[in-house]
Amino acid sequence: MLLDTSGLLCLFHRDELPHAAACLFFESARAKLTHSYVLAEFVPLARVRGLPMVPALTFVSDLAYNSEIEVVWVDKQLHQAAIAFIQMRLDKTYSLCDAVSFLLMRQQGVTEALTTDHHFEQEGFVRLLKP
Q1: E strands present in 53-130
Q2: Contact at 8 Å (CB) between 125 and 101?
Q3: Under 8 Å CB-to-CB from 123, ≥6 apart: which residues?
Q4: 3-class state of residue 130 by DSSP
Q5: CA dihedral 5, 7, 9, 12 (to 10 degrees)
Q6: Which helix or strand (DSSP H or E) is residue 3 part of?
Q7: Rounded to a whole number, what is the distance in angstroms from the first to the last CA of the chain?
Q8: How is residue 125 annotated by DSSP?
Q9: For residue 34, what is the enclosing H or E element?
Q10: Cα–Cα distance between 53 and 128 in angstroms, integer?
Q11: Over the stretch 1-36, which tens digit does the pLDDT of each residue have?
Q12: What is the percent of the chain with per-residue pLDDT over 70, rounded to a whole number?
């Protein structure tokens, strides 16, 4: 299962409607994958939602060093591949973070994402959280 920014927010913040579902999916997942752009995107999302910074930073740091989560650190090659991916889909509103997620999911055979983002469904993946 890919851990996306919106799914992590649902996991982190109890007031998010899909919080309970996010917790269940997270706990039951056999494999968990995320990447450095998701971790970077989480911090400003938490800030925009008015959540306290110190717990948000601690949450992201804990994820980055959790041995049960594979964190891919985006390098120049993956970044460039994500830009090329978006350039082939200019009719979509994908973020660079989305594109990296889609490429990694295809590369690693992952079909499910802990996310509320409908873009994952547009690319043929399973969105586990529906707000």
Answers
A1: 69-72, 112-114, 126-127
A2: no
A3: 102
A4: coil
A5: -130
A6: strand 2-3
A7: 18
A8: P
A9: strand 32-35
A10: 26
A11: 999 999 999 999 999 999 999 999 999 999 999 999
A12: 100
Q: Which amino acid, residue 104?
A: L
Q: Residue 53 phi/psi, 5° resolution?
A: -65, -45
d(CA 6, CA 47): 13
Amino acid at 113: A
> What are the structure tokens assigned to 131, written together?
């707000």
Both tokens assigned to 104: 């990694």
CA nearest neighbour of 95 among 76, 78, 116, 119: 119
Question: What does the block give as tokens for 129?
Answer: 């959280």
CA distance 4 to 23: 14
> What's the whole-model pTM score?
0.96
Reported residue count of the chain is 131
Tell me the residue type at 94.
Answer: Y
DSSP H helices, the chain, are: 5-12, 19-28, 36-48, 53-64, 76-87, 96-108, 119-122
